[in-house]
Amino acid sequence: MGTKKGGSVGKLQTDTLQPVLNELKELLGDSKEAEKIYELVLHSYTESNLYEQASTALVNAIFGKYGLVILNMSHHALKNYFKPVIEKELFEQPSQAIIEKTQKELGEIGFSVQAHVREINLFYLSENERNRIEKTADHFHIIGTGLNFSEEELRTELDNHPERFSPNVVLRPLFQEFVLPNLAYIGGGGEIAYWLERKTQFEYFNVPFPMLIRRNSALILEEVWEKKWHKLDFSTQDLFSDTDTLIREFIQRHSGKELSFDAELAEFSKIIDQIKLKASHVDPTLEKTIIAEGLKQLKSWEQIATRLTRAEKSRYDIQIQQIRNIKEKLFPGNGLQERHDNFIPLYIRYGLDILNLLIEELNPLEQGFLILCLSDEK
Q: Is the pTM of this model over 0.85?
């Protein structure tokens, strides 16, 4: 049986994943914890026929003991419950105007657009297909297919098969809160901005909008990296400084030489101004020549100062590279570790203890940035 090429991801078959599972086994290695996580993945994706079943099994195996609710949002009953919103979106198309207005207002205070909104923010699901719905002058067209519906036909389709209508990224929060109302939504910075775009949309559909709470973030600092960092004579707080600032501070601290020439260059500028002033009393026509020559000399001295600084930096190439490596490891791409690193390497190293630790230490209602220092000893 071949893998389905389209449609809902949850409905994709798992029967062609064995080569991927074999590659995963090689990547994970043969440690005790690596074997445990591999067995979890293997069992989930070989004992289940569909991605949705396999993903549910894997997530439940890892997090089930902490208390977990998993819903299949494509279920007929849930889509049927959401039908009033689907109907308005199909036949009134309110979301685009509402959200574009909100995005414009948010943009004026510094928020960037989080999600592209369309005239109709729904997909139509059929076997192996998940396609956008587009309204034309006299019918509704399913993009990429030969399917067309009149308004009456589409209403009948919605009544009989609500599970065939899938919210896109713009309607998904509405579907989520419609089915499982929440007092508050806790998320990261980008997620909060994304939800802010939905507020007026929620009001239009008469769905209670949850309070938005910016969760705290965490950095996992393993002992090997902590030791390297402190060996460079930096504090944990220094991790939050940008790389170039850290490099300058390190060189100034360890060089023993004054590498800033700002004072000397400032004095040189004053001398040029004094010469210009004296010359203006003798021959005002020379003022422009003096300014040009002064700027030329100033630029030359700035270049010399840069070369001297670079020469001194070269003595600390190893340490500078260490600073860059540690910063990149802990803040990949100058972003947050939590948005880049997968939990599996930590699971392999520390086992389920890492999840217990995160659940124990992370309180999303506490402000601040949490740093978890992990010992090499499990």
A: no
Lowest mean pLDDT among 129-133, 155-159, 258-262, 349-353: 258-262
Same-domain check for residues 274 and 171 = no
Q: 87 with 155, same domain? A: yes
The domain of 124 spans: 76-215
Poorest-confidence range of 48-52, 191-195, 274-278, 332-336? 274-278
Domain boundary, last residue among 191, 215, 239:
215
Q: State both tokens at 154.
A: 């589409």
DSSP assignment string, 51-93: HHHHHHHHHHHHHGGG------TT-HHHHHHTHHHHHHHHHT-
Question: Whole-angstrom Cα distance, residue 146 to residue 154?
Answer: 15
For residue range 289-306, list pLDDT tens digits in order: 877 887 887 788 778 777
Q: How many domains does the chain have?
A: 3
Percent helix / strand / coil, the chain, rounded to 5: 60, 10, 30
Q: Tell me, yes or no, whether 148 lies in a domain.
A: yes
